[in-house]
Amino acid sequence: MVLDILAKKGAICSDRPAAFPNVPGTKDWKYLPLQGFHDTWRRQRKFTHFIFGTAHENNYYGHHTIEVPRTLVGLLQNPHAWSPQLDQHQARFLSRCAFGTPRHASALCTNAWRLLINISPAGRLSNVLPGSMKVPKCLAWWRVDEQDRQDKETALYKNCQDEVREQWEKGNAPPSFTRTYLEHGCHYGFPTDIEAAFNVGMVSMAGIHTTSSPLHTFFLAMTLYPEWMVRLRSEERRVGKSVDLGG
């Protein structure tokens, strides 16, 4: 029933509500995960499917072969900093995927956390106020903070796109989501380059904590129940897919 309602009949039975009414920018083209089912959402969804499909066909351009060993060495050298290293691992991987370089990982990670705080029902008090209610003056600082976040986010995505464009025009841009847009984006009807920049930046940023969070859970589970690591390795060997996890 769920599949029938939300997938097969999703066009008439499923939509995203007008959530987070007091958060600026969530009702326009900037935030794909928060958009309703309309033409802008369809355009960005199709392009997202294309860039991830292209990356998957090319084994994500080998970025994981660089970042996984780097993270494992970091964990061995500084195990007490395991939590931020997991966040940085995913941020660096997605920065490479989006822009062909890990240099923007910290900025993506910072923006992702600020956005989560500013839209989560467990975050700012103003997030749970009714849309018809104005944000009280005592919470005006929150709007200033959110506007600062959006200004920095816009500058980040625009500068990253401009950087890749300059490399692409010189013929030395590494494979990335942004380069895919420059080569094939004309087929998806983006009215402006900045919308495409947000499309790339948003899907990349959204993948940071959604992946590092399960990694955190795995580390916690292996710490509390280390005997399961033995079982996992035994199962891997049994099915012929053994992975050398070290130790």
SSE topology string: HHHHHHHHHH
Give me the number of helical elements: 10
pLDDT < 50 stretches: none
Note the overall shape: globular
How does this structure look, described?
The chain is mostly helical and 247 residues long. The longest helix is centred in the C-terminal third of the chain and has 32 residues. It contains ten helices and no strands. The protein is globular and about 55 Å long.
Feature tags:
single chain; 247 residues; mainly alpha; 10 helices; 0% strand
Write the topology of this structure.
Blueprint: H1 2-8, H2 10-13, H3 39-57, H4 63-77, H5 82-99, H6 105-119, H7 140-170, H8 177-184, H9 193-224, H10 227-238
Helix pairs in contact: 4-5, 5-6, 5-9, 6-7, 6-9, 7-9
Question: Summarize this, please?
Answer:
65% of the residues lie in helices and 0% in strands. By secondary structure, it is mainly alpha-helical.
